[in-house]
Every structure is written in C-alpha cells, then in structure tokens.
Amino acid sequence: MYFPGSPVLSVEGTFAEACLLETVLLAIYNHDSAIAAAASRMTSMAGDRPCAEMGSRRTQEWSAVAAARAAYVAGFASTSNLEAGRSYGVPTIGTAAHSFTLLHDTEEDAFRAQLATLGDSTTLLVDTYDIAEAIRLGVELTEGRLGAIRLDSGDLAIVARQARDLLDDLGATHTKIMVTSDLDEWQIAALQGAPVDGYGVGTALVTGSGHPTCGFVYKLVARADSDAPDAHMTPVAKKSKGKNTLGGRKFAMRRRGADGRAETEVIGLGTPPGNDGNDRDLLVPVIKDGEVVYRATLDDARRRHADSLAELPVGALRISKGEPALETLILDETGDETTNPYQAAPVVHNI
Fold first, then answer.
1. What average pLDDT does range 230-241 have in this prediction?
2. pLDDT, averaged across the chain
C-alpha cells in the first residue's frame, strides 16, 4: 500500500546508470501498480469470494502477463493467461466459451464433450441459449454433481438469484455460481448480497479500472559532491509550479497504534530514527553492489499485500473516492515536521 509522497523505490548509482533504469522502472511500477490497485479494490469488495483474472484479450500481449501477475499479488486467485502460469506460477483456470457451445449441433453435445474431458467438477457456461434449460441439462448430465455454472449476461444479481433457486430445487445445492460480464469493483460491491461464489474480471482490471497508470515519477533528489565513495550528498529538488519535489535521500516508515492499525505514513530526510517498535520500515535493500540481496517470492508479495491491507483502518475499505486512508507526515533532517509538497496530490481511491 502506498500513499502520496511516500517513496516506493530509491536508486543510488552513477548518473548514467540511474538514467538507464528510469524508463523500465517507471513502465513496470506505473502499469503493474495500476493493475494491482484495481485488483486490490476488487478483492476487497469480493471478500471471501475468489476473483479470476480474465483480461488478456483487452490489453497488449505482454502487458497481459504482467497484469495477471499483479492481480495475483493483490489477491486474485487465478488467471486465464497460460503464460503467467508458466512464467510466474500463477494458478490458471478457464471455462468454455460460447463459441465452444456453438461449435456443436446442440448444447447437450457441447456439455457432454466438456464433461467427458474435464469431469463433473467443471464449470458449464449456461447462457448461450436458455439459462434455465441449460442448468437443468447440466444437473441432469452430472446427476446433481456439477461443479459450477457461469453467468455472462443479463442483470447478474437477478439472474444469479434465479439460478441459485433453480439449482437448489434440482438438488444441486453444492453447485457454485461464477459471474462475468464487464465487472469492476463497483459492480462486485453491488453483488455482495447476491448468491454468487466467484467473479471473473477482464477489461476493467487490466486497464486499471479507469486509472491505467499510477502517476509515479522518478526524480533526482541528491547528488554527490565528488567521486569519493563517502562523498557528501547534496539535496536537489525541482521548484516548478505544480511539479515541485522534495530533495534529499528519504526513509519511509508506517506508524502503527497500540492496536496494530496503521496511523501515519512517516517520510523523513537523512538518517532514520531508531525504531521504537511501533514503526514498520517500508524500504528494504533489494540490490547492493550489483548483487540481488532480496529474494522474496510472488507468494511473499501476495502475503505482504494482505498484511498491509489488514493493518489499514477500516475506513480504507470504502469504495467511494476520497482522501488517503493515512496522513503523510514529512520530517526534516532534525526530525521536525516540514511542509509536504505531495499532500495536495490528486487521490482517486483510498487503496
């Protein structure tokens, strides 16, 4: 979780080395964090119901792989992108398409073929023709053991309720209902009271749900006075109107209260103070002297997202637009509070 003015990454090196990294780092952070932010909002609204990433057809081919990875970090349970499964180990799933049903002479032929290949636990797409008839057919062919159905059209809240009632009447009380169809966090929130067991999300997710970039910037904040390894670092900063920056090497901590809830984002210049136990350091060494020193896995990142989300105040889970969930506090070299040039930055969502 990040907040206005809080540094996400610090790079120290020669000017040429740092410049070479700028474009690739901003490309990764701006794109992947936008997807992760959208995914975090969606999984927060979904609660215990799993979300599947299904947006590969709505973005550039390699962006689709990155999007699947970012969504998994932010709580999505699976992806339809096979390359993300091969490259990163993200769990892969899929359901039959309408085209698969249309390929066969009848819906029954299509269902029989899918069940013969994947077994009764598969998910049948039931809205190619008549939803009620398709549900009855799926339950009959599996003798009530059908794993799940997928709904991809109509008023999902109403259709899901009707489907649940029909499944229960037919004795398929364990058959789950998965919904798709241009979902976003707002629609997922609206479906909280519907008998839905999972969500498949595509377009809104891989395009950042209306916010395709996070607006991260990469700015020079200090320069060495000489080439000596222990040279003094002089803070530098832009002063241009509307784009001013805060000079100096920074540290970042998340201050927590006695109840373990995060209260403040503390950004300081110079040497960080001793941690008295209620602060969590946000910046850790990743590469030192050309060697990778941080070996977190994708699952580690996934757990860190869940832990970071859990420590935020309850108000952070509002779906509405508003102010940041945490105040950003800027400290100068002496430890005193100073002006925060980022506090007035546009904020679109709370998480």
1. 88
2. 91
123: in domain: yes
Domains: count for the chain: 1
Long-range own/partner contacts, residues 242-251 (CB < 8 A, 24 or more apart): 244/341, 245/217, 245/219, 245/221, 245/341, 246/5, 246/221, 246/330, 246/340, 246/341, 246/342, 247/221, 247/222, 248/221, 248/222, 248/333, 249/10, 249/221, 249/222, 250/7, 250/10, 250/221, 251/281, 251/283
Give the phi and the psi of residue 36 in degrees, each rounded to 5.
-65, -40
pLDDT at 343: 52
H helices present in the chain, as ranges? 15-46, 61-73, 82-88, 98-103, 107-118, 131-142, 156-169, 185-190, 203-206, 298-310
Look at residue 264 and tell me if it is in a domain: no
223's enclosing H/E stretch is strand 222-224
The listed range with the strongest mean pLDDT (94-98, 180-184, 230-234, 255-259) is 180-184
CATH assignment at residue 109 = 3.20.20.70
Any domain includes 144 = yes
With the CA atoms of 78, 82, 87 and 91 taken in that order, what torsion angle do they form, in degrees rounded to the nearest 10? 20
Residue 85 contacts residue 52 (beta carbons within 8 Å): no
Interatomic CA distance for residues 60 and 57, integer angstroms: 8
Cα distance between residue 207 and residue 197, in whole Å: 24
Ranking 51-55, 73-77, 134-138, 229-233 by mean pLDDT, the lowest is: 229-233
* pTM for the structure as a whole: 0.91
Range of the domain at 163: 33-206
| Per-residue pLDDT, 35 | 97
Asked whether residue 103 is domain-assigned, the answer is: yes
Residue 165 to residue 172: CA distance in whole angstroms: 10
